[in-house]
Design goal:
Blueprint: H1 12-23, H2 25-33, H3 37-48, H4 55-111, H5 122-129, H6 134-143, H7 146-155, H8 158-169, H9 176-190, H10 204-213, H11 216-229, H12 231-241, H13 252-261, H14 264-271, H15 276-283, H16 288-301, H17 306-325
Helix pairs in contact: 1-3, 1-4, 4-9, 5-7, 6-8, 6-9, 7-10, 8-10, 8-11, 10-12, 11-12, 14-16, 14-17
């Protein structure tokens, strides 16, 4: 219910308190179960301070509640156009527009408050969504923090996992209207879990960050499956999962193997845009003579275009991934990897 509009209307909180009292204790208890703690406190305080409710106020609140409930029923049954046609017949054009606007605004606000989803048990959430459409699962994953999303992803069946990740990587292409409709569907499924926090919906970078949090074997299986259907998307995800600067975390032995196969001109060009920390890490795997020659090559290049540096860095990253796939180097250690002595 909306707040006071300056024309004598009751404040929204008072209307809510009056409605809860009029509906009785049993209905009030059910309403309380679905309210966030902050709203619950405000409503309880308002009920405590409610005082006398005139018959006119009670009638006004019940009539408004009936109209809004009717509007929500029409929307659920046939969508906005269907609801508008029926509401115009019942309340006129002006009344129909006001009711639709109020209900849709409330639905949107409700579905976009997603600030507690990360507090849900991952097992419970995975069970709840595993039979949903992959597009819906992708939207849920996009609302989670990276660690929580990775935990839920591990618990989903493999085909569902792959389909959801693919859609999450492409999700920035969704129109706001599509996102709004999916969010409304989500609310119906998730409202029993409480209010939650909204964040960016997804995209390649969000997927890359999430896959970086799960074990490499699972990550590779997901990406391999996506690659069969969309090689370009899989490549974009892989590129975001491991960047040129990430070589800083690669062991020296693997760096040495990589540098042995990199074209020296490409390496000089790539290092023109690298951080001093990464340069030092790579130089450690080289002889002093090789470092000296490489520095001379970098100086000889002079000013270079940023896109040329990026292209050279990506060429080295692609080579690193190829060598990793061949088992010749290690880019990312297995989770909880054990050592054999």
């Amino acid at each position: 219910m909306s707040p006071a509009n300056g024309n004598g209307a009751l404040p929204g909180l008072r209307k809510a308190a009056i409605l809860v009292v009029l509906l009785g204790e049993e209905a009030a208890a059910q309403i309380y179960k679905h309210l966030p703690e902050e709203e619950l406190q405000l409503l309880t305080q308002e009920i405590t301070e409610l005082g006398y409710v005139s018959p006119e106020e009670a009638s006004q609140v019940l009539q408004e509640f009936y109209r809004l409930a009717l509007t929500q029923e029409y929307l659920a049954r046939g969508g906005p156009d269907y609801a508008r046609r029926l509401l115009v017949k019942a309340f006129g054009e002006g009344g129909a527009s006001a009711l639709l606007e109020q209900v849709l605004r409330a639905q949107e606000a409700r579905t976009h408050k997603l600030d507690r989803l990360d507090q849900v048990d991952p097992n419970r959430l995975a069970k709840l969504i595993e039979r949903e459409h992959p597009q819906t699962i992708a939207l849920i994953l996009g609302h989670l923090g990276t660690a929580m999303a990775a935990a839920v992803l591990r618990l989903l069946p493999e085909p569902t996992r792959v389909a959801a990740v693919r859609r999450l990587a492409q999700m920035q292409q969704f129109s706001p209207e599509v996102v709004r409709r999916i969010a409304q569907v989500l609310h119906g499924k998730l409202e029993s879990l409480g209010e939650q926090r909204r964040r960016s919906y997804g995209g390649v970078e969000a997927v890359a960050e999430m896959l970086n949090r799960i074990d490499p074997a699972t990550s590779r299986a997901i990406l391999d499956a996506i690659e069969h259907e969309n090689a370009e998307l899989a490549l974009a995800i892989r590129n975001s999962m491991f960047t040129f600067e990430d070589l800083l975390g690669v062991p020296e032995a693997s760096i040495r193997e990589l540098l042995a196969q990199v074209d020296k001109k490409t390496l000089a060009l790539a290092l023109k845009g690298a951080s001093e920390q990464l340069r030092a890490h790579l130089f450690k795997a080289m002889s002093s003579r090789a470092v000296e020659m490489l520095r001379e090559d970098m100086e000889a290049l002079g000013p270079v275009r940023a896109r040329e540096v990026t292209r050279a860095q990506q060429e080295i990253v692609n080579l690193a991934r190829t060598l990793e796939a061949q088992g010749k180097i290690i880019l990312k250690a297995e989770a909880e990897e054990s050592l054999v002595v």
